[in-house]
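Recap from last week: sequence in, structure out.
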Amino acid sequence: MPGISSFNRKSIFNLKTLADYSTQSNICFIFGWLNSNLNSMGLLSILSKGITAMINEANTPASFKIGEKFEDYVREFLFTDEDYQLVERTHNYTTNSSDYVESSLKPDFKFRDKKTKKEFYIEAKFRTGEYQGKIVWCNDSQLKRYQQYNKETPVFLLLGVGGDPEYPEFLALIPLAAAKYTGLFPSYIEKYEVKLDEPILSKTLWGMK
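Predicted structure tokens:
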């Protein structure tokens, strides 16, 4: 790896070069060097935002990264802006680690169906496989909390299994009333299978029982 003295202004702005210094300690070192050597504060401000994003990524635990990636998949491919208005979304790990937002205890999304005008929650969970013959999607306290929200606004479990959180191999959409336990048998989950990478239609959502 080249020393910092070998950088020139052209290479500093090469994103690939910056990516080579992607560990937190090196990122902080680069930021300090930039701060003391560059006169263009506007450009430094742009760079610092990118560096901050990389630091946040490095500091986010793997389990939270997986969850956030799957949530992005849910919004981009399944509950799209064309059919569902986003009312609420829980805050990410970076925000909550510095100042926890109480609303993050809610399910991941609150949507409004543009056709029916009904509001509902989606709790998005990604799992790589089974544990003792079941897909464990939450713990006891989470289930009780979701059940409380379900009394006022419908809650659905959107479960992704296998593959990658951005490209799961299997999807199921389960009304919370049907997800009565923290662990569910695969044979039961299969009854609620939905298509991969395709928007979930309003009639499909409200037809779930």
